[in-house]
Design brief:
181 residues, mainly alpha, 6 helices, 0% strand, elongated, disordered N terminus
Length: 181
Amino acid sequence: MTGSVEVSSTGKEGEGGELSFLALIRIHEHLNQLFFSHQEALLMFNLRIACDRMLVFEKELRSHMKVEEELLLPIYQRAGRILGGPVEFFTGEHKRMLEFVGRFCEKLRELDRNPLDLKREIIALLDEEATFKHLVMHHDEREQSILYPTLDRVTTDAERHEILPRCFPANSSLRQMGYCG
């Protein structure tokens, strides 16, 4: 797919104004908002909406991870071994995040079938989700400080113009929100 990614309004340009992989932070921000909307539904005790929103979050998270693992991480490997940022860190964190999400989905289905002691069960779920959010925060920081700057360093501006638009369309609601051209 081709298209353009608007980055100047968000400051996601590298030195000299060239396109930067830091523009992908918008996907992380979008995923965070999807997760928060799931948690808002939990706070309203609306398990069906919470579950629906979790499924949307999971779909878009998987889509983003697929782009990173199949497109970006092979390019990242051009830089060689990087202290604090081996490929296995990123893929291992992806795996752990998906394990969390799987547990959340199962717990939501269980609560919907058997809502006994719902308030306490939601508190327990929110506690586990807090742990997940810490993992996501550290993962996002690693990508922002290591992965994306390294990708900028090992790619040309022309490559970034070809690769970056392919990263955004994988997230359908981002397309609808105008995050990609």
